[in-house]
Amino acid sequence: xxxxxxxxxxxxxxxxxxxxxxxxxxxxxxxxxxxxxxxxxxxxxxxxxxxxxxxxxxxxxxxxxxxxxxxxxxxxxxxxxxxxxxxxxxxxxxxxxxxxxxxxxxxxxxxxxxxxxxxxxxxxxxxxxxxxxxxxxxxxxxxxxxxxxxxxxxxxxxxxxxxxxxxxxxxxxxxxxxxxxxxxxxxxxxxxxxxxxxxxxxxxxxxxxxxxxxxxxxxxxxxxxxxxxxxxxxxxxxxxxxxxxxxxxxxxxxxxxxxxxxxxxx
Length: 266
Hints:
Layout: H1 2-16, E1 22-27, H2 47-57, E2 62-67, H3 72-79, E3 85-88, E4 93-96, E5 99-102, H4 104-108, H5 110-124, E6 131-134, E7 139-142, H6 151-162, E8 169-173, E9 177-182, H7 188-197, E10 204-210, H8 216-221, E11 226-230, E12 240-242, H9 245-256
Parallel strand pairs: 1-2, 1-10, 2-3, 10-11, 11-12
Antiparallel strand pairs: 3-4, 4-5, 6-7, 7-9, 8-9
Helix pairs in contact: 2-9, 5-6
């Protein structure tokens, strides 16, 4: 139930923040901060969520990271708040608060990935409602606007195109999207560990909210964090669930009015 999960989440965060020097908050974008849209170009933060996020990011005891499958420039363009950390392409690229990281293996494979996306675009262009997006370090094949009867053909096209490059890339299914991701040891969970290790703080309480398959990589490697699956969760490694972005906004509103339970030194 939403109410039970919400109460449990805020109770744990409130209790554990008494001994933590810093809360490291991670928020996915699509499906977590904003509702999923059939057209991936459309989602923007609504003014209320933007205001709340700005309040949260101004808290001295909080560091906020937006972590998403979107390219980092695309992600920043939809939020445009200073003081945040932005982790794009599922954490393969990170910037903000004097941090800068690009996963080297993914960077080296950009040309091969672009050619692969071009080939795939030509193959699926005859299937209405599909879109191939080259995002620099990863690729996405969106099919939210396609007919369900075409889903098998889309998947077959993606897997057939990627197969000859299987030593370099893998296919990761998401919510009405197939992601083409470089084969590296990096994922959203690795990005969380990297960011936390660069925050120059003692005890850190990580709070991670995400809705997608790629967020499970973070849930799995953060057993001590407050992990929250947003949306339906038949199977998840997260410890809590919230039903939708509106509930996430309620949690952020609660977080925005909190004060440290004790004096922390940074």
